[in-house]
Amino acid sequence: MEEPKTILLVDDDPVILEVINDCLQPAYRTRIAMQGGRALDLAATHPTPDLILLDVELPDIEGYEVCAALKRNPATEAIPVIFLSSHSDVFDITRGLQLGAVDYVTKPVIPAVLIARVQTHLRLREAHESLKDQNNRLERMVQMRTQDLEIRSRELQTSQDLTIFALGSIAETRDNETGNHIHRTRAYVALLSGMLSGLPRFQHGMNPDDWERIWKFAPLHDIGKVGIPDHILLKPGKLTDEEFEIMKRHTVLGRNALHEAESRIGSHTDFFHVAKEIAYSHHERWNGSGYPEGLAGEAIPLSARVMAIADVYDALISRRVYKDPIPHATSVDIIRSERGKHFDPIITDCFLELAGEFAQAAQQFSGVAPA
Question: Domain check: are 102 and 251 in the same one?
C-alpha cells in the first residue's frame, strides 16, 4: 500500500492550521510550523515533505523569504510551494510565482479548492519524478549495452509518450470545460505537420523526427496553466486587464516548468526543446501583436505557429465557461480572415485544405461533431 504524502503546513494562526489540518487528514500526513525558521528546518528534515502550504505573513520571516530560501537549498528546491494569503492582488500573486511557488490560495481557505490544488500539484511532482526515473533507467540501459536495446528503446518511447500525456492532462484537469482538448489539438497538429512536411520550403532543416516531435509535444502547450489561480482560469466572463496579464504568464510558467523538469532529470538530449517552444510561443502572432515577446513572422518557432492554429480552432468550436461553441464553418472563416495577421499564411492555407479533416478529428475526440 502506498504511503500517504506528507504536507508541511506553515501558518501562525492556530485556527487556520486546525481547519487546514482537518481538511487534509486522513488522506495526507502533515507537519506543522508556526514560524518561518521552523518551517525551513522541517522542510529539510528527512524525509522531506511532498508539498508545502506557506502563509505569506509570518512572525519571524516573511513567507516570500522562506520560499526563496527553500528554492536556494538543493535539498528543498524541488518541493512545490503553494502560498496562503488573505490578499489576492496582482503584485502578491506575481511575486509568489516569480519566487518559484506553483500556486496561490486565498484565505479563508475553501476546503474543496485547497484539496483540488494539492492533488493537482502532487500529481505534477509525481510526473516530474517519473521523468527522472526514466532518465536513470535510460542511463543504466546504455551502460549495460544490452542486446535488446531496440526493444527497450521502444518501451522508453512509450513511457515518454505516456508521460507527455500525463503532464498535459494535469493542466486540463484545472479546467473541466475543455474535455478532450489535448487529444483534439494533438490530432490537428499531426494533420498540419503531415501536410507541411511535404511542402518544398520545409524540406530543408526538418526531418521526419522533427515533425513527429511537434505533434507529440502538442499536449504540453498549456502546461503553465497549473500556475494560474482558479478565479482567473475559470472566470465565466471577460478578464480585467490585470487578470489577463496574469493569464498571459502561463506561457512563461509552462516554459519554465519544462526547463526545470529537464534540469532535474539531468537530461542532455534536449528532450523538451520543442515542448518549450510550443508552451512559450503558441500565443505569438504572425503580425507581432501576440505575447509573451511580440515575435513576428518566421521569428516565431515553426512548432508554435502550427500549434497556434490548432489551439484557436479548438477554442472556437468548443464550449467554454465564458462562451458557447462556434459552428465549424464560422470558425474556419474566422481563421481565414486572420491569414497573415494572427496566423502564418502558408500554415493557414494548409488548414483551409484540411478543414474537413479537422472537423472529423474534433468529432472523433469529443463524440460530437462541430456544429
Answer: no
- 77 lies in the same domain as 175: no
- Report the C-alpha gap between 113 and 106 in whole angstroms: 10
Best CA proximity match to 102, nearest among 261, 308, 291? 261
185: nearest Cα among 169, 162, 204: 169
Structural domain ending residue among the three candidates 93, 109, 125? 109
pTM, to two decimals: 0.62
Pairwise CA distance, residues 118 & 126, whole Å: 12
How confident is the model over 224-280, as pLDDT tens digits? 888 888 888 888 888 999 999 999 999 998 888 887 777 666 554 556 789 899 999
> Mean of the per-residue pLDDT values for the chain?
85
Residue 21 phi, psi dihedral angles, 5° rounding? -60, -45
Q: What is the pLDDT of residue 371?
A: 47
Is 129 part of any domain?
no
Domain total in the chain: 2
Count of CA atoms in the C-beta half-sphere (13 A) of 14:
0
Can you tell me the distance from the alpha carbon of 19 to that of 34, in angstroms, rounded to the nearest whole number? 14
Position 114 in a domain: no
> What gap in Å lies between CA 164 and CA 294, rounded to an integer?
28
d(CA 43, CA 41) in angstroms, rounded, equals 6
